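Hi support team,

I submitted a single chain yesterday and got back a structure, but I'm not sure I'm reading the C-alpha cell output correctly. Could someone confirm the output below corresponds to the sequence I sent? I've pasted both exactly as they appear in my results page.

Thanks,
R.
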Amino acid sequence: MKNRVKDSKVNAPAACRSDDLVAIVCPARKVDAEELRFAVSVLESWGLRVRLGSSVGLAMHQFGGTDAERAADLQAQWADPQVKAVFCARGGYGCARLIPLLDPEIFRAHSKWLVGFSDPCALHAWLWKTAALPSIHGPMPMLFERNEPAALQHLQRLLFGERESILSAAHPLNQTGQAEGLLLGGNLSVLYSLQGTGCFPDFRGAIMFLEDLDEYLYHIDRMMLNLQLSGVLDQIAGLIIGGMTDMRDHSIPFGQSAEQIIRERMGQRRIPICFGFPAGHIADNRALILGHPVRLQVEAQGARLSYD
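Hi R., thanks for writing in. Yes, this is the structure output for that exact sequence:
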C-alpha cells in the first residue's frame, strides 16, 4: 500500500499569537452567550481576543438559528482576515446541514484553524476534502469547564504552534507496531453518515482516529461492519480508538464492549492499533490535528502519537 504521508505537504494555518482574534460560532445546537462565559475567560487568559458570532444566542428549535443563519455566521468569520481560528461552540447535531450552503472558494481562500469535535467532524471532513486544510479535533467552549486543565493546556499549545507527542496507556486489545500517515477521522457516527458523499475522507495510507458517545453497541458493530465491507479498514495504516463513552445495550446483552467489537472487525490486519487513547467525549480530551502527518507507535508499554 502506498503511504501518502511521504508525498504530503501540510498547508497548515498559521499558529496563533498573543492578541490574535478568534471567533466562536454555533454550527449545531444552540448556545447562549452566558453559557460561554467560562470559555471566553479561558481563551482571554491565553492572550486571545474573542468574538462571539452572530449565531450565538440564536435558536431554531434545538439549533443555533436556521441552517442559513448558522452557515452565514461560519462563513463570515472564515472570510474575516482578522480571525485566526474559529471555535465550534458545541456539538449535538446540525453541522452537516450547513455543507450545501457553504461556498468552497471562501474556505480555500482563507487559511485558519477550525476547532471542535463530535458533530463538527462533518465540517472537519468537508474542509479537508474541499480545501486540504488541517483542522483541530479538540475541546469546544461549551465543554471547557468539564475538561481537565491538561487537556485545555494541550489545546493552547497546539494553537500556538507546539506539536507535542501524546502518550496513551497500555491496553489489552492493543496491537503493537509502527506506522506513518495522515491523521484522519473523528466521530464514528458522523463519519458513517458521510459514507457515499463527497465529504468522506480518503483513508488510503492514513492513521484513522475514531471515538463516539451514547451509541447502542449494535450500532457500533453496524458502523464498523460498514467500514469493513466497504474496504476502508483495508486501506488504513493504523487505527486509534479514543473514548467510547456511555455506550448503551439492550436487556439482552450484545455480548461485547465497543472496543471488543472494533477489535473483532479489524480481524487479522497487521497494523498498529491503539485503544483507550485520550481524546473524545472524555475529560482529558487531547487536541489532534486532523490532516497532519503523524507517526503512531504502539508497544507493550503503551502508545505514542507524534507529529512529523
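A quick pointer for reading it: Confidence is low (pLDDT under 50) at residues 1-8. Let us know if anything else looks off.

Best,
Support desk
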